[in-house]
Amino acid sequence: KPPTLARQLTVQMMQNPQILAALQERLDGLNGSPSGYMESLPKVVKRRVNALKNLQVKCAHIEAKFYEEVHELERKYAALYQPLFDKRSDIVKAAYEPTDEECEWKADEEEELTDEMKEKAKLEEEKKDEEKEDPKGIPEFWLTVFKNVDLLSDMLQEHDEPILKHLQDIKVKFSDPGQPMSFTLEFHFEPNDFFTNTVLTKTYKMRSEPDENDPFSFDGPEIMCCTGCTIDWTKGKNVTLKTIKKKQKHKGRGTVRTVTKTVPNDSFFNFFTPPEVPENGELDEDSEAVLAADFEIGHFIRERIVPRAVLYFTGEAIEDDDDDYDEEGEEADDEVKHLWPQ
């Protein structure tokens, strides 16, 4: 449908900075502030607007009930997904070898391959088959997933990678019916030289009701706090700490001595020791930034990584996620890189 002359003129006007500035000045003069318009209304109209606000509060409470039922549905379907996720885990850790039928997959790209490319691919496959080492399951499955996703790879340090090679599965557990809304991420590890835990957990507690002091801010359940777990590190293997040597000069004698000091170290495993939220709920700016990024990561693992792990392993899901974000998302990534103190 061709644009009308009026529409063309409007577009041209809106692109003129002088006209835009004049319009803004006119609006500012009318209202003075966002609440200026409300202040200018007759008292009887303001009274009715208050009635609408009370209706809105009731809407927020109904919305909270809606999200409670959504949570019940999530719990119900989690039980249906779990057998498939368990089988995925068994294939990854070589507890189950899939049948030829289960391994059949026709990729779109295969249709476009030339005979020469097919022959080359066949030779490469045969060469791999002749190699002495026979890999079990899908080696480094979860480590590869982490490295493929910017939000997670930004947390990874080189010293984390040998540990994450032992990660066999990530599971999501929802709170029981009747309990406050929460979910727990379970990271299952095979026996390793780094710590004795077989499972590391991170629990996120959520608020699913409107805040009495600010009911209009309610937009569904939001994470309020999280708790990690104690990692039972093998002696000398704790990657969340590092030892540094410092020289100290004696004030009186002037002699110098070298002291050894243990300080925090950047590591993915700091994820399991998030800042504690004090009872008054007040946090310093750094802790707030850490928790905000932590909540984003926990939500992303639950909503995207666990349900679609194979597509993050292959990289197919990365393109879909890139399409979901605009340029503002790049700034958020920078915050994640500096989650924990140097």
TrEMBL record:
Superkingdom, according to UniProt? Answer: Eukaryota
Q: Which UniProt keywords apply?
A: Nucleus
Compositional bias, Basic and acidic residues, is annotated for 115-134
The cellular location(s) given in this protein's UniProt record come to:
Nucleus
Q: Which Pfam families match?
A: NAP (PF00956)
Gene Ontology CC = nucleus
- Region: Disordered; residue ranges are 101-134, 320-342
* UniProt biased composition (Acidic residues): 101-114, 320-334
Query: Any keyword Nucleus?
Result: yes
Q: Which GO terms describe its biological process?
A: nucleosome assembly
The record's listing under Gene3D superfamilies reads: 1.20.5.1500, Nucleosome assembly protein
Q: What InterPro entries has UniProt attached to this entry?
A: NAP-like_sf (IPR037231), NAP_family (IPR002164)
Is Hydrolase included in the keywords of this UniProt record? no
Q: Which family does it belong to?
A: Belongs to the nucleosome assembly protein (NAP) family.
* The protein, known as: Nucleosome assembly protein 1-like 1
